[in-house]
Specification:
This protein has about 400 residues and is mainly β. The protein has a single domain, classed as Beta-galactosidase, Chain A, domain 5, CATH 2.70.98. The protein has 3 helices and 28 strands. The strands form 7 sheets. Strands 1, 12, 13, 14, 15, 18, 21, 23, 24 and 28 form a 10-stranded antiparallel beta sheet that branches. A hairpin with a 7-residue loop joins β12 and β13. The longest helix is centred in the first third of the chain and has 19 residues. The radius of gyration is 20 Å and the shape is globular.
Length: about 400
Amino acid sequence: MKLFPFVDRVGAQPAPAASARCLALGAALVGFALLTGCSSTSESWQHEHIYSATTTPMIEKADFGKTPEGESVEIYTLSNRNGLRAKVMTYGAILTELHVPDRTGQNADVVLGFDNLDAYLKGHPFFGAATGRYANRIANARFTLNETVYKLAANNGPNTLHGGVKGIDKKVWKAREVSTSAGPAIEMTYVSPDGEEGFPGTLSIKITYTLNHKDELRIDYEATTDKDTVVNLTNHSYFNLGGEGEPSVLSHVLKLNSDRYTPFDETSIPIGEVAKVQGTLFDFTLPVAIGARWNEIKTNPVGYDNNFVVSQVHANEMTLCAEVVEPKSGRKMTIFTTEPGVQFYTGNFLDGSLKGKSGRPYVKNSGLCLETQHFPDSPNKPQFPTTVLRPGQVFRSATVHRFGVQ
């Protein structure tokens, strides 16, 4: 029995005609406007801080070094009309910086990361990275599709995590500017060959970062395949709305549009059930400080690393996912997504051994992740929304991070 009877092929759709694409986009924009029309605080901030588009370049490109294989890496700076700024590099399609204002108008970088390529090459816990071909975990590093067992690279105990040993976060992507009147945008593309990390099919991936003039960072994902496969793509940014380098996110106040979650086993693999959050440590249906129930958490290490079911009315529609507020600065991030799930992670394995852009160590709980996604281990859980992608279909997903103050 399927737990999600309304889901047929979430995120995988036949390639539409141009007119259908326009109609779908129009409907999505109308729905999105209805969802977002009540953010008067954010809108008033925008009107007070808008300046001419000619004040600063919308996109700047710079060299960011080379990989050990000699591949050149570039970094792009996107700036909107209101002074928000994001940096994305071609290695791993990684979001390296994101500068947003507090309630006094003071900008701060709110994502964890490094200011040089070498630090990323030495290894990191997916700071700002595009993750796939299958984000999150697949149990025992294997799955069965069309009666064929596919063995994957195990890189998280017995399981596959975020695409394997060398997932898309460790590849150099091609980039091109695709800006519109909405704001500066960079399109990243990578072709994952058949069999990479054990996954079937040649997977062509496109990720577009747009920093629009409504103070939103939008990430759009597309993928096609030449053979039946599974796909799950996300961005693994660690946020600290107090500013990168601040020691803790436990005072951040979180609200999730989710009344259910997927319980998991000792290796963080879902057991296949969907449970209600009511009366549990996972109830964020009302705003609550992340650290409010910290002493009740029994995991080792202590913290959250859980998949929540987004309360969607219809599959694939842009839906409110999460709201996060940092009380001291007043910065607020509101997330919308077309994905059915979101992984809430509190940086439980950060141990202070890595120093970030500010020169300060990244200690436990100094960043939080809200990774929009299909559920972990869906290829082995037929009751979960499917992640199967077939030739002729187009995987599409979008996530919007809206910034403001309160």
